[in-house]
Amino acid sequence: LDQFDKVEAEELRLTDIISGFIDPDQDDVAPTATHIGSELSEKELDDEDDEDEDKDDTDEDDESDEDVGIDPELAREKFSELRRTYAAMETAIQQYGRYDERTKESIDALSETFKQFRLIPKQFDRLVNDMRQTMDKVRTQERLVMRLCVDQAKMPKKTFVQLFAGNESSDAWIDEALNSGKPYAERVARYEEDLRRCVQKLKIIEEETGLSVERIKISAVVCLSVKRKHAVRRRKWSKAN
């Protein structure tokens, strides 16, 4: 959405971010040329990227400054729909929480809308890869925090989830655990320094991405959901042809 705002401000071309749109009711159209959902190895992906870059270099002079083949009004309509479904998801999270069934439905609706966009292949691949790497960093810290609290300090898992979920990058939940007067409080104190270090790392991840841990998780769900749906669509098209 931020990228489309730049298109509207004439800071980017529409073709810098998308190559077109997919009709959600049309299954017999060839998927966009991308290795989303493919079984290519990392080396093969790198090789393919190199080939694409070579092709881009040779074709660059032939490209006009206009967005050829994409109806700007249709693009505005599609991005407006994406903005609406994103806002609906944000509202659902605020009203019901991330794990409520209604929130999950709003995330699915966002995925369905997002999958209609034919993003530039390399851009989407990098988006998915960046999101995966960010999620790996988040999971590493979350697993360490849970191990220290649940396995080492013997905090009940239900209590840990209540304290930690939604407060991942805040020290407040640590203070609450330490001041709880519960049997596990003294044991948590033994790992306080390590826990605060993990929280600090999660804060840094948020600062680097501009997203809260909760938003990072939701973005990862949406990206990977779209990736899977594209992969299914590619397989169906391959079998049909």
UniProtKB/TrEMBL annotation:
GO terms for biological process: DNA-templated transcription initiation. Residues 44-70 have a biased composition (Acidic residues). It comes from the Bacteria. The lineage of its organism: Bacteria, Pseudomonadati, Pseudomonadota, Gammaproteobacteria, Vibrionales. This is RNA polymerase, sigma factor D. One of its GO terms (molecular function) is DNA binding. Residues 1-206 form the RNA polymerase sigma factor 70 non-essential domain. InterPro entries: RNA_pol_sigma_70_non-ess, RNA_pol_sigma_r2. Pfam families: Sigma70_ner. Residues 21-72 are annotated as: Disordered.
